[in-house]
Amino acid sequence: MPELPEVETVRRGLAPTMEGALITRADIRRADLRFPFPDDFAGRLSGRRIDALSRRAKYLLIDLAGGDVVIAHLGMSGSFRIEAGGGADVPGDFHHPRSKDGKHDHVVLHLETAAGPVRVVYNDPRRFGFMTMARRDGLAEHPFLAGLGEEPTGNRLDAAYLAARFRGKAQPLKAALLDQRIVAGLGNIYVCEALWRARLSPLRPAGTLVDAAGGPLPALDALTAAIRAVIDAAIAAGGSSLRDHIQADGSLGYFQHSFSVYDREGDACPTPGCGATIGRLVQSGRSTFFCPRCQETTAGLVKIAR
């Protein structure tokens, strides 16, 4: 499942082409993806100008003139590609190619841009992504977006905010950080990386990072800084470049090559002088990668977690 940096990378890749463009025609080639498309989706898109592209958590938001917003999610294998100049391919250095099989092209937007006609194609072999439509003035109350926590890229995500949400929680840090009601868009990969950067056990109860008065302890300050740093680094590098993700121009980011713990079970911890090897445990059905020495994850706690 794509995480926030992947969706932000796609947004930045699509924005120069899509923002300000007119949708002259929309081809919707099946009745549904993960969910059914809205009624008359093609008709409601055709003839509309795209005002802006934005993101909330892991959702791509396409603002249309007139106040409607398309809410899109990439699912497991969804991707957008840009086709211009009569070519069927897009530029890019493919490390793990995405599907360009036309049978998986489910949505095609025909755009008129300042540079001429362009097609933006949504391809999704597994069909676990989706698109729906909502009104901009009611977007915050939409079922997909209502109740989401603060963005890890925004100034409002600080140690005081997390302290208020963590206070009294016995829930493990890993699970608390994956709760989209606390931090929106933060997923498994970057939680593992942030906890390693902050030298915190994924099993530590979230409430232990809060003092008796409800304020953040220094460890929570370190965690907040680590979350922001790892997300900023991933966005700057163009996303994690997992097998099912490419940038909008067809190229892959390469942030995965600098992962410190994620998917590195058995490798040496990159902390100089540590000497431990990266371990793995399963929490709520998801793999957690960690350094048992740097993050003070004891064998006893690992046993309890299992």
Could you give the order of the helices and strands? HEHEEEEEEEHHHHEEH
Subunit organisation of the chains = single chain
What's the average pLDDT? 87
Instruction: Work out the radius of gyration.
Output: 21 Å
The CATH class label of the largest domain is: Mainly Alpha
Q: What share of residues is helical?
A: 10-25%
The largest sheet has its strands arranged as 1-6-7-5
Structural class: alpha+beta
Major pleated sheet: 4 strands, antiparallel
Q: How many H/I helical runs?
A: 7
Provide the low-confidence segments as ranges.
Answer: 87-98, 299-306
Beta-strand segment tally: 10
Question: How many angstroms does the end-to-end distance come to?
Answer: 24 Å
How many structural domains are formed by the residues? 2
Reported CATH architecture of the largest domain: Orthogonal Bundle
Choose one word for the global shape.
elongated
Can you give a write-up of this model?
This protein is of the alpha+beta class and 306 residues long. The protein folds into two domains: 138 residues, MutM-like, N-terminal (N-terminal domain of MutM-like DNA repair proteins, Alpha-Beta Barrel), CATH 3.20.190.10; 145 residues, Helicase, Ruva Protein, domain 3, CATH 1.10.8. 24% of the residues lie in helices and 21% in strands. It has seven helices and ten strands. It has a four-stranded antiparallel β-sheet. A four-stranded antiparallel β-sheet has the order 2-3-4-8, covered by helices on one side. Strand 6 and strand 7 form a beta hairpin. Helix 5 crosses helix 6. The longest helix has 20 residues. The C terminus is likely disordered.
